[in-house]
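Margin note from the TA: students keep mixing up input and output lines. Inputs are the sequences; the output is the structure of the whole complex. Example:
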Amino acid sequence: MKGIRVRLKGLAKHFGRVVALRTLDLDVRAGEMVAFLGPSGCGKTTTLLMIAGIYQPTAGEIYFGERRVEHLHPRDRDVGMVFQSYALYPHLTIFDNIAFPLTLKKIAPAEVARRVRQIADLLGIAHTLDRRPGQVSGGQQQRAALARALVKEPQVLLLDEPLSNLDAQIRVQARGEIRRLQQEIGVTSILVTHDQSEALAMADRVAVFSTGELQQFAPPDELYRRPANTFVARFVGYPPMNLLEGRYEPGAFVLDDLRIPVPPGHPAGRGWLGFRPEDATLDGDVPGRVTVAEALGRENLVTLRIGPAEVKVLVPQGRRPAPGTPARLGYRREHVHFFDASGRRVGA
Amino acid sequence: MPLLPPRWRLLLVAIAALSLPILSGLAWLLLTGWFDQVHGLVPTGRLGPDNWRFLWEAVGGRPSVWIPLRNSLIFSGVVATVVVLASSMAAYAISRLSFPGRAAYLGLVLVLHAFPAVSLIIAIFFILRRLGLFDTLTGVILVKASLELPLGIWLMKGFFDYLSWEMEMAALVDGVSRWTLFWRIALPMVRPGLLALGTFALLSAWGEFILPFTLIVSNQNWLMSAYLQTFLGEAFTDFGMVAAVGLFYAVPVIVLFLLGQRYLLNIYGGGVKG
Amino acid sequence: MRRYAAPVIFLLPATCLIVAFFLAPVVTTLYLSLTDISVITFQNPQWVGMGNYATLLRDQFIGRIVLNTARYVVLTLLFNVGMGLVLALLSSSVHQRWGDQLRAVWLLPRILPPVVYVLIWQGLAREAPYGLIGTITGSSTSWITAAPWAVIVLANGLVGASFGMLIFTSAIRAIPADLFYASAVDGATTLQTVRRVVLPLLRWPIMFVTAYQTLSLLTSFEYILLLTDGGPGFYTTTVWSLHAYKLALSQYFGNVEFGLGAAMAAVLVVIGIVVSVAYLRIFNFRALVAEPKIEVN
C-alpha cells in the first residue's frame, strides 16, 4: 500500500509570545515509523497537529511527497490520526465510527461495510461493531480509533499518545500490534509519546524534542549509543546516564580534587563526562562511598558518592554493598561519552 | 443533608404553608373551570360543562378559539426552532471557531443578556412598521426569537465549551468541514442543551403577552394570550368560562413543565427574567 | 476571506436578528426621543433636541411616577430576595424529595402564562363570597381595587422569588459539607449555622440577584399592566416603564406621543446599558474566552 515521504522545512509555531516550536527540519521516509519523543510542552504534539492541519504553522513548509500541504484543510491532506482519548463519537456505534471517514467520501454503502468489516477483522474488533464506544473496553476503543484512522487508507498515520490510556499489560501487547500492522500496510507513521520505551520499541527512527527544539533524530540504538547532547543522554535510557560536570585536562576529567582517567578524544576545558550505569563498575580506581543500594530484581542499583557528585552503578544480583562502605568506581572506557561545556557531544 | 435541624418536621409544615397561595391559585383555576359557581375554593354549583362552550362557539365577537390556538402553536414552535438553531450556530462559532472579534461578540451577547429588552418595545414597534411586518405573525416571531437569543447563545456556549477538542480534531482529520462537523458531531452531543433551550423557548413563547399585545392588532392574528386577555377586561366577567379558557391555555404548559422540569430548573437558575 | 467563511455563516442568523431587534431599536429609541413624533406628526416629525426631556422634567405627575417606581422596585425586591432566601434555606434543610417539590411548586407562577397567572389573581381577589381573599378579609370589593400595591408586590414577588431561590439553592449546595459538620462540632445551633456560615457565604449571590432583579423590575410592567393597568384611579400604580409604554403605544389615549414615550424609554435603555456593561466588568470576562484549540475553520 501507499506510504509517502513527509518533509518539514523550517517549521515553526508561536502562540502569541510563547514559542512552541522554534525551527524544525525533518525528513520522514516513505513507509517509515518515526517517534516524536520528549517531555510535555516540548513541541512534539504541536508539530503533529501542524502536520494534521489542526494548527497553522507560524513559518515553514510541510511536504507530503512533492505536494506542499501546510495551507490545506485537514480533510484535504489524507491523513489518519489516533488520539490519546481515542476521540470516538459517543453517539455513534463502533461501526459508524469506523465508517465515518468513508461516508464523507460518498463511497457506496456496500463498499463502506466491506471495508469496515475488513479493518475490524484485522484488528480483532468485529464482534464490537454494533456497540457504542461507552460499552466496550479501553483496548477495544483504542483499536476502534486505529481502525477509523486506517480505514480510509491514508498516506500518513499520526498517533498522539495512542497507548497512554491503556493498562500496562495491554500497552506492551498493543505496541507490538500497531508496529506489525504499520509494517504490513506500509503507511508512513508518526508517533508522539513521552514514553521512551514505547518510542524505542516501535519506531524506525526517533526524534527527541526539548523546549521547542529538535535535539536528535536517529534510530533507537544510535540514540542510545551516541546521544547528541546531554539532554538526550539523560532522557533516553533507564536508569539514566551518569553525567558529571567538570574540567578536562589531558588524559583526565577533573572533578574538584578527583581525577578520573579518560581515553583519548576528549574535549578540553569545561565539559561533561557521561557513562551509563550498566557501563560502570565497582572495581575501578576512583574512590567513593556507597550511599544507597536498591534491588531491581535481575540487578542491583548502587548509588555512589564520589567527590561532589552522585553516580549510579548497575551490579549483578549477588553484590549489594551496605550503605557507608567504601567502593572504587570504574567504567568501560569504550562506552564513555564526552560533551563540551554547552552539552554537545564530542568525538565518536 | 448537612443542614438538617432537629425539628425538621416543623419545616415541612412551614414549606406547605408557604406553598399554599400558589397551590390554592391552581385549585381555584381547576375548580372554577369545571363548576358553574365557586365560593372561595368550595364549589357551590353544579358541574358546568357550559364553561367550555368557547370550544365550539365564538364568544362575544371574538374569533373561534381554534384560530388563536393555531397561531400560538405556530408562534411557539417557530420561535423555539429559530432560537435553538440560531443560538446553537452562533454559540458554536463563539465557543469553537477561531476568528477576530470573538471576545467582543461574546461580550455583546453577555451585555444583551443582562439588558432588559422590554425597554425597547417602542422602537421595535417602529421598526416592524418600517419592515412592513407590523400586525403579522412573522414579525412577532422574529422579535420574540431575537429577544431570547442572548440567553440561548450564552447557554449553548456553555454546552459547546465542554465538548472534547480531540473529538473535533478527529472529525476534521476524518474529513469533515466545520459545517458538517457542527451538524453531525457537535449538535448530537449537546442534546441536553438543545432540549433545555427548546423547552424554555417553547414555554416562554407560549406565555408571551406584551409583544403580541403590542405588535398585533387584527384578531385573526391573535395569540392565546391576547384572546384570554380580552376576557379579563370585561365589566361582568364570566369567571367560569374565563377559568376554562385559562385552563385550556395552561394545560400544555403544565404538561411540558412536568416533562422538562429537570432541564428547566437549570436554565431558570442560570438567570432569565427577574 | 475564505478563512473566515465558516464563522460568518455560523454567526449570520443570530447577528441579523440581534442587529434588527436589539441594536437598531437602541438607536431608534434614542433618535425618537429627540423628535416630536406623535400620531399627528407621524409622517413628518420635527427635531426637538432635548425638548422631550425638558417636558418630562416639567410634568406635574413625574414625581408621583418616580415614587411609584421606587416603591414597586424596592418592595418587590425585598420580597423576592427575602423569600428567595427563605425558600432556598428551607428547601435545602429537608430531604431532597421535599426540597425538589417545593422548588417545583414555586417555579409554577413563573412558567404559567402571565395572563393565566393574572386571571388566577383576579379570581382569588374577588369580593366575598366569591374570592378566597375577599372571603377571608370580608371585603365587599375586589382586593385589587382595595389594596392594589399589596397585590402588585405579591403577584410579582411570587414569580420573582423563584429566581433567588434557585440561585441561592445552588450556592448553598456548593458549600462544602465539612463546614456544616465543623460548625455542628463547634456546638452551633442550626440558626447560628445559618447566620454565621451560610449567609456570609451567600453574600455574592445575594448581590447578584439584587442587582439583576433591580434592573429587570425597573423595566418590567407586564403584570401591572394586566392587574391594575396603572390604576385604580389616577396614576395610583403607574410606574416609569408602564407610563412610557402608554404614552407611546397605548390604544386608549387619543394623542399618542411616541417621542415623549421614547424619551422615558431612553432613560431606561441608558440605565440598562450602563448596568449590563458593569456586570461584564464584575464578571471575570477574560476567563470566559479561552482560545480555541483548532486554528482552521
